[in-house]
């Protein structure tokens, strides 16, 4: 049986933000939604999360040098 893509040790943690979390993120950092980096709706992780166009995905990466870093992508 195949494992979920998110269980692979090289894939960072991906989370789908709720509408409230999205608004809070955009207002907290003064971001323009259209200027966020893009992630295709066809991306395997976007499909696994059930992301729709217009959603935001938070990616948490761990680095031995920088520690934990957060990245945000809008689904197109």
TrEMBL record:
GO biological process: transcription by RNA polymerase II; transcription elongation by RNA polymerase I; tRNA transcription by RNA polymerase III
Enzyme class: transferase
Family annotation (InterPro entries): Arch_Rpo5/euc_Rpb5 (IPR014381), RNA_pol_subH/Rpb5_C (IPR000783), RPB5-like_sf (IPR035913)
GO molecular function: DNA binding; DNA-directed RNA polymerase activity
Superkingdom of origin organism: Archaea
A Pfam family assignment: RNA_pol_Rpb5_C
Annotated RNA polymerase subunit H/Rpb5 C-terminal domain residues: 5-75
Enzyme Commission number(s): 2.7.7.6
Any Gene Ontology CC annotation: DNA-directed RNA polymerase complex
Catalytic activity: RNA(n) + a ribonucleoside 5'-triphosphate = RNA(n+1) + diphosphate
Protein keywords: Cytoplasm, DNA-directed RNA polymerase, Nucleotidyltransferase, Transcription, Transferase
Subcellular location: Cytoplasm
Function per UniProt: DNA-dependent RNA polymerase (RNAP) catalyzes the transcription of DNA into RNA using the four ribonucleoside triphosphates as substrates.
Family classification: Belongs to the archaeal Rpo5/eukaryotic RPB5 RNA polymerase subunit family.
Protein name, as recorded: DNA-directed RNA polymerase subunit Rpo5
Lineage of origin: Archaea, Candidatus Iainarchaeota, Candidatus Iainarchaeia, Candidatus Iainarchaeales, Candidatus Iainarchaeaceae
């Amino acid at each position: 049986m195949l494992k979920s893509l998110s269980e692979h040790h090289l894939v960072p943690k991906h989370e789908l933000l709720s509408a409230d979390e999205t608004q809070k993120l955009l207002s907290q950092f003064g971001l323009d939604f259209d200027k966020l980096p893009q992630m295709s709706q066809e991306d395997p992780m976007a499909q696994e999360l059930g992301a729709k166009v217009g959603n935001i995905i938070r990616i948490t990466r761990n680095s031995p040098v920088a520690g934990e870093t957060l990245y945000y992508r809008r689904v197109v």
